[in-house]
Design brief:
The chain is built from five helices and eight strands; from the N terminus they run αββββαβββαβαα. With 165 residues, it is an alpha+beta fold. The longest helix is centred in the first third of the chain and has 23 residues, at 4-26. The chain is globular, with a radius of gyration of 20 Å.
Amino acid sequence: MLTKNKTIFLVILFCLINAYCSYAESNIIVGKVIKVIDGDTIYIKHKDFGKMKVRLADIDAPELDQPYGKESKQLLKEIIDKKTIKLKKIAKDKYDRIIGVIYYNNLEINHYLVINGLAWCYDYYNQRIEIKDAENEAKQKKIAIWSSSKSPIAPWQWRKGIRNE
């Protein structure tokens, strides 16, 4: 027979586990991609939340007017446009976009773009070593943005107006 303290402990433990599982599940959204804006921003449609703007976490793809910007968007479009994806919500940014990690058929899209040289590891925000490792691998293999003998201009610098004119 359980003592009163053990019973209370088990009830509290069960409640905590249940609350954690509910929280973890609430951070996963399944939706259909309705538009690819560029290599790191999309719109998805969710049955309950409607249209949602999503920014891929931990990465920064080239701007569209930057070398490989169109290729980055095109690859993202080929993989997920008009398809149902899983979104792991990380946060919301100051522009009210959801920041998240995208999965399609068990492929992590954020990582895929970086390892294929079509996005940078966004060091300022990145918290995952595998994203930095993917960037280092793409650099070593001289893939896409890393293929030139000149150092590519990171998108965060490009947006500030530092361009090769």
